Amino acid sequence: MDPRLREISDGVYAHIQPDGSWWINNSGLLVGRRGATVIDACATERRTRAFLALIAGVTDRPVRTLVNTHHHGDHTHGNHLFAGATVVAHERTREEVVAAGQPNWPGIWTPVDWGEIEIAPPFLTYTDMVTLWVDELRCEVRHVGGAAHTTNDSIVWIPERSTLFAGDLLFHGGTPFLVMGSVAGSIRVCTEVLAPLGAETIVPGHGEVAGPGLIDDVLGYLHFVTEVARRGHAAGLSPLDCARETDLGPYADWLDAERIVGNLHRAYAEIDGAEPGARIDVPGAMRDMVAYNGGQPLSCFA
User: Fold this and answer.
1) Residue 1: pLDDT above 90?
2) Ramachandran bin of 295, using left for φ above 0, alpha for ψ from -120 to 50, beta for the remaining angles
3) pTM for the complete prediction?
């Protein structure tokens, strides 16, 4: 299925890219009288240009503001194609975009045509939150206060419309990915930050638009990972061996199920006393995910 814009409220659109698996993210579009605001770019030049074409089909106004919900390349690689837009994000998002640089994951994913990517980090940053106005519509861009999906996650909350752009704090139909963040921190954010908002409409970072029940679905998986990690760590199993012995049960059909291995790497580190978001061996965790996948690169259709 082709990417599409879905109007979820007057002038508020979700940009949905099926099937939401590796590097295939969602974005947002808020259309005002004088200009538009975009929430997250795309992973490749081709996908970002296609997004821009969809935007042009909705409004002839320029994109004046681009918000990045976190630093991962599927949300930031296309920043440079939004010429003239102010790129806004948490201050640590800027640091991590600069540190990550060009995509370089040999042997981890099936080949991807990234196109011509110019790293364009956010240049207007905040520490806690910033209020963005689209005409008279108030949009609260909030850092979630600690590590979760990454160390620099933000949400865009539109209280008047009870609409939440959650970034990769939430996946719909896909397995959460916590290697660069925190399992415990993700549970905290879901219960203390996202759920209390009472959002009626949620745009996840990947997958279809959802309702508030999505938060409970993700929390169920997070608690599942926590319990699997506790048992595996106590038994002296490596994260990879623990994952191989684990029945994913209701989560087996979620996309990118191999993420269980990386999530266990993060959960094990926290059991061993690592602070949420502390640096761990991410390349090693990714290689273990490939091993879990039968030694084959992870499928990527970006």
Assistant:
1) no
2) left
3) 0.97
